[in-house]
Amino acid sequence: PRLLSQFFFADERVTRVVAEINGLDAELDPQQYLVLLNQLHVSQAHLLAVLERIMEECIPTQRHSRDYLVKFPEELLVDNLGNHMLFAAECLLAGTFLDMEESDGAQLRPQARNLLCSLELVRTVLREQSLSQPNSYPEPVRTVLIQFDRLFAEFEL
């Protein structure tokens, strides 16, 4: 029931699926590749949902404002906007520009890099915290969560 324990297992699932994708030759088994991509999407969505709950518990008053979300279509907000943003950041970093001018993509690439680096730092810090003291959120944990929340909000905007 502890959020850090839930995070640990969600993070393990994402790591396991990524390792399976990296070890698979997509040309030899395209069907399995698609299955794994779907598993990655689902496991990342779960990881982000747990991370959101951790931030609500740990830094509720220090969260970055999300007032701009009223401008997004409702169907996008219901369908896990965070997971779409993570996918967009990964695509930008890989050099893929989705439905945007190349100059816009080049401008967003540093933000995407910062966001993904911050997510990796959060994952590392929370994994370590879940193994050492799963009932507390010391200042270093709070600091990386605040930074990640800010970068994520800036990327969404």
From TrEMBL:
GO terms for cellular component: early endosome membrane
Domain of life the protein comes from: Eukaryota
InterPro entries for this protein: LST-2
Protein name from the UniProt record: LST2 protein
Lineage: Eukaryota, Metazoa, Chordata, Craniata, Vertebrata
